[in-house]
Every structure is written in structure tokens, then in C-alpha cells.
Amino acid sequence: MEEITLRQAQDLMRKYYYERDSRRGLYATFTWLVEEVGELAEAILEKRSKEAIEEEVADVLAWLLSLSNLLGIDTEEAFRKKYLNPEPPL
Ligand SMILES: [Mg+2]
User: How far is the CA of 39 from the centre of ligand 1 (A)?
Assistant: First the structure.
């Protein structure tokens, strides 16, 4: 399987969706992220197949990356700063 970094995933989202994300705007894009989190919750609570849950995990990440693009946040860097240090938060 092809490896992909978080930064590459975010670049991919920018390439395919940034224009549409920009037109939709920050608040509506955030709302979509929340909607996808709800779908993930539903999939888990309804004990759907692993494949179905995987799809929702992918959706949540995709919308988070879209949101980061709109906010000008490098998600990989943000994750590194907070979690890749000798004392990650508890
Ligand atoms: Mg979904």
C-alpha cells in the first residue's frame, strides 16, 4: 500500500477541495466536520462493520484537514508540536 504522510494528505485535500471549502466558508466546513463525527459515533454505536467505521474515520480526517487548510494550519506540524515530544499530554 502506498504510504502517505499527514502533510501529503492535507495537500491532497487542498488540491481537490480547497476552492469548494473556501466558497463554503469556515463555519459551514466546521459544521460538516461535526456531522462526520456524528456519523462516526453512529457507526460505532450501531456496531457496524470495521470497513464502515473506517470510512467514517477517513471522513472525519478529511474534513479536519479541510478545516486546517481554511485556517492555514499545518496539521502534521500541530500534531508534532503537541504529541511528538518527550512528555506528551496525559
Ligand atoms: Mg461520513
Answer: 6
Distance 28 CA to ligand 1 centre (A): 16
Quote the pTM value: 0.93
- Work out whether the CA dihedral 53, 59, 61, 63 comes out positive or negative: negative
pLDDT at 88: 78
d(CA 76, CA 6): 6
54 C-alpha vs ligand 1 centroid, how far in Å? 10
Where along the chain do its domains lie? 6-14+25-74
Superfamily (CATH) of domain 6-14+25-74:
MazG-like (1.10.287.1080)
